[in-house]
Amino acid sequence: MKPYFKVTRRTFLMGAAATAAACSRGPRLNIFNWSDYVAPDTISNFEREFGLRVRYGTYESIPEMLAKVMSGNSGWDVIFPSAEYIQPMRDMGLLAPMRHDWLPNLSALEDQFQRPPWDPNLDWCVPYMHGVTGIVYQTNLTWTPRAWSDLWDARLTGKLTMLDDPPEVFAACLKTLGDSLNSSDPAELRAAQQRAIAQKPLVRAYLNAEVRDQLVAGDVAVAQAWAVTSAQAIAAAPGKLAFAFPSDGFPRYADTVAILRESGRLEAAHNFIDYLLRPRVAAAIVQTTRTATCNGAARAMLPEDLRADPVLFPAAGILARGEWFAPQSAASQRLRDRLWTEIKT
Amino acid sequence: MKLRNAFLAPTAILMAVTMLAPLAIILVYSFLTRGAYGGVEAPSTIENYTRLWDPVYATIIIRSLWIAAAATALCLILGFPLALFIARSGARKNLYLGLVILPFWTSFLIRTYAWMFILRDTGIVNSVLQSLGVIREPLPLLYNSGAVILGLVYGFLPFMVLPLYATLERLDPSLLEAAADLGARPWDTLVRVILPLCAPGIRAGAILTFVPCLGTYLTSDLLGGSKTVLIGNLVQNQFTASRDWPFGAALSLALMAIAIGLLFSVRRRGEELL
Amino acid sequence: MKTRRGLALYALGAYAFLHVPLLILAVFSFNSSRFAVWQGFSLQWYRAVADDSNLIESSVNSLIIAITATAVATVLGTLAAYGLWKRASSWLSGSLYLSLVTPEIVTGVSLLALFQWIFRFLHLRLGMHTVILAHVGFSLAYVVVVVLARLRNFDRSLEEAALDLGATEFETFWRVTLPYLGPAIAAAAMLAFTVSIDDYVITSLVAGVDSQTLPMVIYAMARRGVNPALNAVSTLIVFGLGVLVLLSERLRRA
């Protein structure tokens, strides 16, 4: 009996010592990003060059990120919010202002992203990657999905996935009804909700980036997916998958990088963002993530197959069918959240 | 008595902090209004409770009850013969008991993941069936209520077997001999002698299985594919994606009320709580 | 006897049901392909696990949390069980019982609400301390149940005899009752340790930036689909825990 007490006391002390040791090494930078959104050596190269230790956490959806960050003392320094959340987060006092004097590489951004609609002076964020949401499908299907309305086809039962993201699902439903995907009109939203509920029996699961492996494995035939996920899946299973820009309209999104106001490491955070803006670094990231970078200088450095990839950098005519996500008013947000709960039920 | 009070004090404080205070806060939150992006705001309301009567949520509650009941019933049916076997196995009792408990010691999450691995379209079951020519297209075994029930049974079977074994072990064999002497066939002996004597064990096992199944979150999340929404998932959803803490609080309390109501309804007078 | 043979056959099937899924996981952790078709032996997934610093760090976190929480919960829980055995306290028993029957998700969100509310006044954040506090909270009830069960079989007259012979209350506890409780305390500690190291739901809600645990990493991997590296992790954990259980059995019998 006595030995048990000794063991627990000793191991406890050892554990405490280990924790203390871990705490004393620094300085740290805590970065919270989407999964699979940097190259394998991006972080380690940054750590080495600036002498910092990075804690790199990932999330699969914006609600997941917001839930952690909203309290105002989550412990994270750098986050990657989607563009339409910049204004609400700024209004909630969550973001720290960007200091352009600490971001010499800001000029590397493409022109359209130097003055983006959601943050014209880039006071709060720096655009990182952009893309669209569309339909990715197996090429061996007997028919080709071309529009969102095709995702209501009964032939897809059990082999269709939709994104586990309320704005995205609403966007697809609203588009099939011919409405704007940023609609805050209760009648339109309810009609969209009915469409989503009608589709549920066909849906295998609501998955975000997780669907990539299932697409590659062939478990899923058609998926509503971000361009990011689609390009990665297509590259992993050459010839077996294809991407379609829905003919009834589609969302355009941009992911940005921002600093949380609670962060006490503003300079290190800016160093990281500036590091990401370096054309060489950004180009290396794109090689891994296969996403459309907002960095014009980096885009010019990409190899031919990426630079001309029709999924990542489609023709302007196609992009004109897209609609940027815009922030929602509080009342509209409440309604959407409530309708989403009912859809998921 | 001073010693006894000193011994109880730390635990009492911890229980107050980690159990009672949080529940009190949840109770208060359930009467407040949600903030635009999460959190709570001042205006007090009972809307969160009236919302519970909405048929949409009644569906979830009923679905959760039925899945928990199905899983418990299956655990009972599958676990009883196993417990009987162990109780009668004589010298090797501890070994067989250990073999039941061993999976319990491994991670619940891993055991749930094991079924994800086995049931998926390109998993073992489908691969084998396809290679044997039994089916041509893979069966959608995952992401439905059946998979969730299977996962729950797999996870909680030891919880059922242990109490059953405990009562079966104490069964007086002379009673069984008496029944046989009186001409009862094995089946009659089972139904009319063994089962009634095992009632306490069955009750204990059923409670130990049903209550956690009712509040399950992981199993329905991983095996139900976010289409099989149960109470546990709904509560979690309110605190993350839907950002409706007050409603989540009301749901949590409703869930607890159901669980505790069930427990008290099967309690016998004089039985101690712990 | 026919029924005996039938029962034994059934038991075989039941044991297969319990153990085969884990064996399948283990077997395919050595598969060189990602899919459920055997394509050759490979240790690549184990190498991937060893290279994953996230996994290693979260495993260390899990161990630190589990060991600390187990130590605290076992000591406090044993004392509490003894106190309850001496004289019942319905409100303490009630709250411990409540702790056992409250669904994990409810415990998790209510603790999160408590912490967020407290943090408005104290400038703290979620982290290892909140996780450890939460783990001690839900482990206490398990420890009390196990130790109390053993105490109910204890002969009170032994304590009375000690007191009659002049021992203080504490001496009586320390030298008469506590040795008797040894096996129960060990079992309770093992139970608390297992519950803590396996917890996902509560931990994920109250963890901070620095306190990602192994179940959280496993869950994130599982949500992203089947991943043979996860098979490798699972096999390692099952193997590790199995060894731990066997060791404790040896120690108990020794």
Give a quick summary of the entry.
The complex is a heterotrimer of chains A (345), B (274) and C (254). Chain A has helices at residues 2-24, 42-50, 62-69, 86-91, 111-114, 166-176, 186-199, 211-217, 227-236, 266-277, 279-289, 296-301, 304-307, 316-319, 330-344; strands at residues 28-34, 53-59, 78-79, 126-138, 160-162, 203-206, 222-226, 241-244, 250-259, 292-293, 322-324.
What report would you give on this structure?
The complex is a heterotrimer of chains A (345), B (274) and C (254). Chain A is α/β, with parallel strands linked by helices and 345 residues long. In chain A, strands 1, 2, 3, 4, 5, 6, 7, 8, 9, 10 and 11 form an eleven-stranded mixed sheet that branches. The longest helix of chain A is centred in the first third of the chain and has 23 residues. The N terminus of chain A is likely disordered. With 274 residues, chain B is mainly alpha-helical. Chain B folds into two domains: 162 residues, MetI-like (MetI-like fold), CATH 1.10.3720.10; 39 residues. Chain B is built from 13 helices and two strands, in the order αββαααααααααααα. In chain B, helix 5 crosses helix 7 and helix 12 packs antiparallel against helix 13. The longest helix of chain B has 33 residues. With 254 residues, chain C is mainly alpha-helical. Chain C has a domain of 158 residues: MetI-like fold. Helices cover 79% and strands 0% of the residues of chain C. The model of chain C has no long low-confidence stretch (mean pLDDT 86). Classes of the chains: A alpha/beta (345), B mainly alpha (274), C mainly alpha (254). Chains in contact: A-B, A-C, B-C.
